């Protein structure tokens, strides 16, 4: 059974390998008006291997030093599934072949060797499957494919076992994509594609779970989980975005550059995305890294990114909003229903930097305040490194707990959605710029 399947599987490879040899009739053959080597090639292309073997052997008898004759004897043996004989003839042809022909002969030898090995794996895989050793069978079928990547049915069989019997859809997907890489624009490629589409919901769920876990870890701990996600679904955008964020947080420009290249390959490296990377402002101060970003997004976009990532420029945006009466600071504690028993909301009249990651807020008129508080503080210092990632809820930009033990603090921003978004972006970029200092 395995031999029959192997014959069916390797036909396309035999025809392809036959076309690699440039057949030029010998002088004697030209004089006689026939060339058994060319005849053997034609017969192999038609999958008439018995007749091809006879023609190729005739060519050997005519000229034992003709490497082409031995090559096609080997090709015919390969089609007849006599892999030992095929490898022996390939070895003879290799000794006789000129340098320009050696790659084609070496391909024949490798194909014979891999198919012989694959046959052994398949026999063992069939036996394991019959005994109910599903994991072993899947590994052996995969091994039969991996020996030469010329028997896709075995890869598809292994993938089916991984997906259905072993509940390992990611392993199935890994193998199916390997078939697609090895055999583009082919029927096996299409078969693999159909199976991948069927598995896609499971693969995306695996990728989402692994990325969610990785996002809470440091680079070294997260990378194995990200690799698992990539095996499952390499097209999942959040996978590559999370990898870039973790690379940025690691402080390694080399890791970050590699991650950004992966974003660019998937058209995800826009400057809004890049501006959200932790510490991007500090990276952009490094000339080599800034040049790299220019190579990725263009120099004009790189300059815009440097401005977007600069905490100083973002502070200036908030200061301008404050001076125009569009910025308020809210603090609250003692939650009660949807509000807070103790709270204060005051106008912010100015925002200025103190160092790289702190700001001084100048406090103005009271908008609202609980009866147990007095509006006596004129200035508040805000350390961006101690704030939670900004969350926008309509006009409120929440910064989590902070500011002298308050349960919540954040900014209320005007009534215009565009201004609210601008403030949100400014705060987010300030926080990202202050997370690390590579």
CATH topology of the largest domain: PH-domain like
Any low-confidence stretches, pLDDT <50, length ≥5? Answer: 1-9, 15-20, 22-33
Count of individual domains: 3
User: What is the succession of H and E elements?
Assistant: HHHHHHHHHHHHHHHHHHHEEEEEEEH
Number of strands: 7
Largest sheet, in brief, is: 7 strands, antiparallel
Overall pLDDT, averaged? 87
Keywords: Signal, TPR repeat
InterPro entries: TPR-like_helical_dom_sf, TPR_rpt
Account of the 3D structure:
There is one protein chain. This protein has 438 residues and is an alpha+beta fold. It has 3 domains: 115 residues, Tetratricopeptide repeat domain (Serine Threonine Protein Phosphatase 5, Tetratricopeptide repeat, Alpha Horseshoe), CATH 1.25.40.10; 74 residues, no CATH class; 120 residues, PH-domain like. It contains 20 helices and 7 strands. It has a 7-stranded antiparallel sheet. Helix 1 packs antiparallel against helix 5, helix 9 crosses helix 11 and helix 13 packs antiparallel against helix 14. The longest helix is centred in the first third of the chain and has 29 residues. The N terminus is likely disordered.
């Amino acid at each position: 059974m395995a031999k029959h399947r192997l014959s069916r599987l390797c036909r396309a490879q035999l025809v392809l390998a036959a076309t690699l040899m440039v057949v030029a009739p010998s002088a004697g053959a030209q004089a006689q008006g026939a060339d058994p080597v060319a005849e053997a090639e034609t017969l192999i292309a038609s999958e008439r291997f018995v007749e091809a073997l006879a023609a190729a052997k005739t060519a050997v008898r005519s000229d034992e030093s003709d490497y082409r004759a031995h090559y096609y004897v080997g090709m015919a043996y390969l089609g007849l599934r006599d892999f030992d004989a095929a490898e022996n003839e390939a070895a003879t042809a290799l000794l006789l072949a000129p340098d320009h022909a050696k790659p084609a002969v070496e391909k024949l030898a490798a194909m014979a060797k891999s198919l012989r090995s694959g046959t052994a794996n398949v026999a063992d895989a069939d036996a394991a499957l019959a005994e109910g050793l599903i994991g072993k069978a899947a590994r052996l079928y995969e091994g039969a494919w991996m020996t030469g990547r010329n028997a896709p049915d075995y890869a598809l069989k292994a993938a089916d076992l991984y997906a259905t019997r072993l509940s390992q859809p990611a392993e199935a997907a890994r193998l199916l994509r390997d078939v697609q890489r090895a055999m583009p624009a082919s029927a096996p490629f299409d078969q693999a594609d159909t199976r991948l589409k069927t598995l896609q919901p499971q693969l995306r769920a695996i990728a989402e779970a692994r990325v969610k876990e990785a996002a809470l870890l440091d680079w070294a701990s997260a990378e194995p989980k990200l690799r698992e996600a990539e095996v499952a679904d390499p097209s999942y955008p959040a996978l590559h975005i999370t990898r870039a964020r973790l690379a940025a947080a690691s402080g390694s420009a080399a890791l970050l550059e590699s991650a950004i290249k992966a974003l660019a390959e998937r058209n995800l490296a826009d400057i809004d995305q890049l501006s959200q990377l932790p510490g991007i402002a500090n990276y952009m101060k490094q000339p080599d890294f800034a040049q790299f970003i220019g190579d990725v997004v263009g120099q004009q976009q790189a300059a815009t990114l440097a401005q977007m990532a600069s905490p100083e420029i973002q502070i200036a945006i908030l200061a301008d909003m404050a001076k125009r009466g569009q910025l308020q600071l809210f603090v609250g504690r003692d939650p009660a229903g949807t509000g807070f028993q103790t709270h204060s909301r005051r106008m912010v009249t100015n925002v200025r930097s103190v160092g790289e990651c702190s700001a001084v807020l100048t406090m103005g008129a009271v908008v609202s305040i609980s009866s147990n508080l007095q509006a006596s503080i004129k200035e508040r210092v805000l350390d961006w490194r101690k704030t939670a990632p900004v969350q926008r809820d309509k006009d409120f930009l929440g910064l989590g707990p902070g500011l002298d033990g308050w349960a919540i603090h954040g900014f209320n921003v005007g009534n215009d959605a565009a201004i609210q978004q601008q403030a949100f972006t400014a705060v987010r970029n300030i926080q990202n710029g202050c997370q690390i200092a590579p």
